[in-house]
Specification:
The protein has 10 helices and 8 strands. With 255 residues, the protein is α/β, with parallel strands linked by helices. It has a single domain, classed as Rossmann fold. Strands 1, 2, 3, 4, 5, 6, 7 and 8 form an 8-stranded mixed β-sheet that branches. The radius of gyration is 17 Å and the shape is globular.
Length: 255
Protein backbone atom coordinates (compact mmCIF):
# COMPACT_ATOMS: atom_id res chain seq x y z
CA UNK A 1 0.00 0.00 0.00
CA UNK A 2 1.50 3.34 -1.05
CA UNK A 3 -0.37 5.52 1.44
CA UNK A 4 -1.67 4.91 4.95
CA UNK A 5 -5.44 4.78 5.28
CA UNK A 6 -7.29 6.52 8.11
CA UNK A 7 -9.53 3.46 8.56
CA UNK A 8 -6.53 1.14 8.89
CA UNK A 9 -4.61 3.54 11.16
CA UNK A 10 -7.69 3.74 13.41
CA UNK A 11 -7.90 -0.06 13.38
CA UNK A 12 -4.25 -0.29 14.43
CA UNK A 13 -4.64 2.23 17.25
CA UNK A 14 -7.64 0.26 18.56
CA UNK A 15 -5.56 -2.93 18.56
CA UNK A 16 -7.06 -4.44 15.40
CA UNK A 17 -5.31 -6.63 12.86
CA UNK A 18 -6.56 -5.22 9.55
CA UNK A 19 -3.67 -2.87 8.80
CA UNK A 20 -0.34 -2.66 7.03
CA UNK A 21 3.16 -1.57 8.03
CA UNK A 22 2.59 1.90 6.56
CA UNK A 23 -0.52 2.29 8.74
CA UNK A 24 1.28 1.12 11.86
CA UNK A 25 4.14 3.51 11.16
CA UNK A 26 1.70 6.41 10.82
CA UNK A 27 -0.02 5.39 14.05
CA UNK A 28 3.29 5.40 15.91
CA UNK A 29 4.20 8.80 14.45
CA UNK A 30 0.88 10.17 15.69
CA UNK A 31 1.43 8.63 19.12
CA UNK A 32 4.64 10.62 19.45
CA UNK A 33 2.83 13.96 19.10
CA UNK A 34 -0.69 13.24 20.43
CA UNK A 35 -2.38 10.91 22.95
CA UNK A 36 -4.00 9.15 20.00
CA UNK A 37 -4.67 5.82 21.70
CA UNK A 38 -6.69 7.57 24.38
CA UNK A 39 -8.35 9.70 21.72
CA UNK A 40 -9.59 6.72 19.69
CA UNK A 41 -10.65 4.88 22.85
CA UNK A 42 -12.70 7.86 24.03
CA UNK A 43 -14.20 8.19 20.55
CA UNK A 44 -15.17 4.52 20.39
CA UNK A 45 -16.79 4.72 23.81
CA UNK A 46 -18.73 7.82 22.76
CA UNK A 47 -20.02 5.97 19.68
CA UNK A 48 -21.36 3.22 21.93
CA UNK A 49 -23.11 5.65 24.25
CA UNK A 50 -24.58 7.65 21.39
CA UNK A 51 -26.01 4.50 19.78
CA UNK A 52 -27.52 3.38 23.08
CA UNK A 53 -29.04 6.83 23.62
CA UNK A 54 -30.64 6.65 20.19
CA UNK A 55 -32.03 3.18 20.86
CA UNK A 56 -33.48 4.49 24.12
CA UNK A 57 -35.08 7.30 22.11
CA UNK A 58 -36.82 4.72 19.92
CA UNK A 59 -34.41 4.56 16.96
CA UNK A 60 -34.21 1.08 15.43
CA UNK A 61 -32.31 1.82 12.20
CA UNK A 62 -28.86 3.29 11.73
CA UNK A 63 -26.79 4.71 8.88
CA UNK A 64 -23.11 4.76 9.85
CA UNK A 65 -21.01 7.04 7.63
CA UNK A 66 -17.30 6.34 7.40
CA UNK A 67 -17.76 3.22 9.49
CA UNK A 68 -14.20 1.96 9.05
CA UNK A 69 -12.84 -1.53 9.63
CA UNK A 70 -14.83 -3.84 11.94
CA UNK A 71 -13.59 -4.07 15.50
CA UNK A 72 -15.07 -4.76 18.93
CA UNK A 73 -18.17 -2.71 19.66
CA UNK A 74 -19.51 -2.21 16.15
CA UNK A 75 -22.77 -0.30 15.82
CA UNK A 76 -24.82 -3.40 14.98
CA UNK A 77 -23.45 -5.23 18.03
CA UNK A 78 -24.32 -2.37 20.37
CA UNK A 79 -27.70 -1.60 18.82
CA UNK A 80 -28.90 -5.18 18.35
CA UNK A 81 -27.86 -6.15 21.86
CA UNK A 82 -30.04 -3.31 23.16
CA UNK A 83 -32.86 -4.06 20.69
CA UNK A 84 -32.63 -7.12 18.39
CA UNK A 85 -34.95 -5.39 15.91
CA UNK A 86 -32.29 -2.79 15.00
CA UNK A 87 -30.99 -2.62 11.45
CA UNK A 88 -27.68 -1.06 10.38
CA UNK A 89 -26.14 0.07 7.10
CA UNK A 90 -22.41 0.79 7.18
CA UNK A 91 -20.93 3.16 4.60
CA UNK A 92 -17.25 3.50 3.75
CA UNK A 93 -15.08 4.48 0.80
CA UNK A 94 -12.26 2.14 1.87
CA UNK A 95 -12.61 -1.21 0.02
CA UNK A 96 -10.82 -3.18 2.75
CA UNK A 97 -13.20 -1.80 5.39
CA UNK A 98 -16.24 -2.78 3.34
CA UNK A 99 -14.87 -6.23 2.46
CA UNK A 100 -14.16 -7.09 6.09
CA UNK A 101 -17.53 -5.68 7.16
CA UNK A 102 -19.29 -7.84 4.58
CA UNK A 103 -17.51 -10.94 5.90
CA UNK A 104 -18.39 -10.05 9.48
CA UNK A 105 -22.04 -9.47 8.56
CA UNK A 106 -22.51 -12.48 6.28
CA UNK A 107 -24.82 -14.20 8.77
CA UNK A 108 -26.60 -11.05 9.91
CA UNK A 109 -29.61 -10.23 7.72
CA UNK A 110 -30.23 -6.95 9.55
CA UNK A 111 -26.87 -5.32 8.84
CA UNK A 112 -24.88 -4.66 5.70
CA UNK A 113 -21.97 -2.58 4.38
CA UNK A 114 -21.80 -0.59 1.17
CA UNK A 115 -18.87 0.91 -0.71
CA UNK A 116 -19.96 4.51 -1.21
CA UNK A 117 -18.85 8.12 -0.83
CA UNK A 118 -20.55 9.81 2.12
CA UNK A 119 -20.21 13.14 0.27
CA UNK A 120 -23.02 11.95 -2.02
CA UNK A 121 -26.02 11.65 0.33
CA UNK A 122 -28.59 10.86 -2.36
CA UNK A 123 -26.49 7.99 -3.70
CA UNK A 124 -25.95 6.61 -0.19
CA UNK A 125 -29.63 6.79 0.73
CA UNK A 126 -30.80 5.44 -2.63
CA UNK A 127 -28.35 2.52 -2.71
CA UNK A 128 -30.30 -0.75 -3.04
CA UNK A 129 -28.78 -2.07 0.20
CA UNK A 130 -29.85 1.07 2.08
CA UNK A 131 -33.39 0.93 0.72
CA UNK A 132 -33.74 -2.77 1.45
CA UNK A 133 -32.82 -2.43 5.14
CA UNK A 134 -33.86 1.10 6.12
CA UNK A 135 -37.24 2.79 5.93
CA UNK A 136 -36.47 6.44 5.35
CA UNK A 137 -40.05 7.45 6.09
CA UNK A 138 -39.23 6.62 9.73
CA UNK A 139 -36.51 8.03 12.04
CA UNK A 140 -32.93 7.01 11.34
CA UNK A 141 -29.86 7.30 13.55
CA UNK A 142 -27.23 8.99 11.35
CA UNK A 143 -23.68 8.50 12.63
CA UNK A 144 -20.80 10.68 11.46
CA UNK A 145 -18.35 9.73 14.19
CA UNK A 146 -14.69 10.54 13.61
CA UNK A 147 -15.11 11.09 9.88
CA UNK A 148 -16.06 14.66 8.99
CA UNK A 149 -12.57 16.00 9.71
CA UNK A 150 -11.48 14.02 6.64
CA UNK A 151 -13.64 16.32 4.50
CA UNK A 152 -11.84 19.57 3.65
CA UNK A 153 -13.79 22.80 3.58
CA UNK A 154 -14.12 22.66 -0.21
CA UNK A 155 -16.12 19.43 0.18
CA UNK A 156 -18.59 21.43 2.29
CA UNK A 157 -19.34 18.99 5.13
CA UNK A 158 -22.01 21.45 6.32
CA UNK A 159 -23.87 21.14 3.03
CA UNK A 160 -23.41 17.36 3.01
CA UNK A 161 -25.02 17.05 6.45
CA UNK A 162 -27.79 19.45 5.46
CA UNK A 163 -28.69 17.18 2.57
CA UNK A 164 -28.76 14.09 4.81
CA UNK A 165 -30.95 16.06 7.21
CA UNK A 166 -33.39 16.86 4.42
CA UNK A 167 -33.53 13.20 3.38
CA UNK A 168 -34.28 11.94 6.89
CA UNK A 169 -37.64 11.79 8.64
CA UNK A 170 -38.64 13.88 11.62
CA UNK A 171 -37.34 12.27 14.81
CA UNK A 172 -34.08 11.18 13.20
CA UNK A 173 -30.91 11.72 15.21
CA UNK A 174 -27.42 12.80 14.15
CA UNK A 175 -24.27 12.01 16.15
CA UNK A 176 -20.97 13.71 15.34
CA UNK A 177 -17.46 13.58 16.71
CA UNK A 178 -14.80 15.80 15.19
CA UNK A 179 -11.11 16.61 15.66
CA UNK A 180 -10.39 20.06 17.03
CA UNK A 181 -7.31 22.20 17.58
CA UNK A 182 -9.04 24.26 20.26
CA UNK A 183 -7.42 22.41 23.14
CA UNK A 184 -3.93 21.42 21.85
CA UNK A 185 -3.24 23.55 18.75
CA UNK A 186 0.48 22.80 18.42
CA UNK A 187 0.07 19.06 18.89
CA UNK A 188 -2.91 18.88 16.55
CA UNK A 189 -0.97 20.82 13.91
CA UNK A 190 1.79 18.21 14.17
CA UNK A 191 -0.79 15.44 13.83
CA UNK A 192 -2.35 17.14 10.82
CA UNK A 193 1.10 17.33 9.19
CA UNK A 194 1.47 13.56 9.60
CA UNK A 195 -1.97 13.00 8.05
CA UNK A 196 -0.90 15.13 5.06
CA UNK A 197 1.13 12.11 4.00
CA UNK A 198 -1.89 9.80 4.30
CA UNK A 199 -4.66 9.02 1.86
CA UNK A 200 -7.04 11.35 3.73
CA UNK A 201 -5.59 14.51 5.30
CA UNK A 202 -7.50 15.97 8.24
CA UNK A 203 -9.07 19.37 8.87
CA UNK A 204 -9.47 20.02 12.61
CA UNK A 205 -12.26 22.51 13.29
CA UNK A 206 -13.29 24.89 16.04
CA UNK A 207 -16.15 24.47 18.47
CA UNK A 208 -18.22 26.99 16.51
CA UNK A 209 -17.55 25.21 13.20
CA UNK A 210 -18.56 21.82 14.59
CA UNK A 211 -21.63 23.26 16.28
CA UNK A 212 -22.74 24.79 12.99
CA UNK A 213 -22.82 21.30 11.46
CA UNK A 214 -25.87 20.63 13.62
CA UNK A 215 -27.95 23.28 11.86
CA UNK A 216 -31.57 22.13 11.71
CA UNK A 217 -31.15 19.66 14.58
CA UNK A 218 -32.23 20.17 18.18
CA UNK A 219 -29.13 19.46 20.25
CA UNK A 220 -29.73 17.07 23.13
CA UNK A 221 -28.07 17.22 26.56
CA UNK A 222 -25.27 17.66 27.41
CA UNK A 223 -24.70 19.67 24.22
CA UNK A 224 -21.36 19.92 22.46
CA UNK A 225 -18.60 18.58 24.73
CA UNK A 226 -15.41 16.54 24.47
CA UNK A 227 -16.08 12.85 23.77
CA UNK A 228 -15.55 11.51 27.32
CA UNK A 229 -17.94 14.16 28.67
CA UNK A 230 -20.89 13.00 26.54
CA UNK A 231 -23.12 11.11 28.99
CA UNK A 232 -20.33 9.17 30.77
CA UNK A 233 -21.48 6.01 32.50
CA UNK A 234 -19.29 6.61 35.56
CA UNK A 235 -17.33 9.60 36.93
CA UNK A 236 -14.06 7.74 36.45
CA UNK A 237 -14.74 7.54 32.70
CA UNK A 238 -13.97 11.26 32.44
CA UNK A 239 -10.25 12.13 32.68
CA UNK A 240 -9.08 15.08 34.77
CA UNK A 241 -8.54 16.96 31.52
CA UNK A 242 -11.37 15.96 29.13
CA UNK A 243 -9.88 18.20 26.46
CA UNK A 244 -7.07 15.70 25.95
CA UNK A 245 -9.60 13.76 23.85
CA UNK A 246 -9.25 16.44 21.15
CA UNK A 247 -12.58 15.45 19.62
CA UNK A 248 -15.85 17.26 20.12
CA UNK A 249 -19.02 15.19 20.44
CA UNK A 250 -22.61 16.25 19.87
CA UNK A 251 -25.98 14.60 19.17
CA UNK A 252 -29.07 16.26 17.77
CA UNK A 253 -32.65 15.39 16.86
CA UNK A 254 -34.46 16.50 13.71
CA UNK A 255 -37.72 18.19 14.76
Amino acid sequence: MALPSSARVYDYLLGGGHNFAVDRDTGEQLARVLPVRDMVRFNRSYLRRAVLAMVEAGITQFLDLGSGIPTVGNVHEVAQFANPACRVVYVDIEPIAVTHSALLLADNPDATAILADLRKPDAVVDAPESRSLLDFSRPVGLLAVGVLHFLPDFDDPWGVLARYRDLLASGSHLAISHFTSDRMPREMAAGADIFERAAEPITPRTRAQVLSMMDGFEIVAPGLVFTPEWRPEAPEDVPSDPGCANLYAVVGRKP
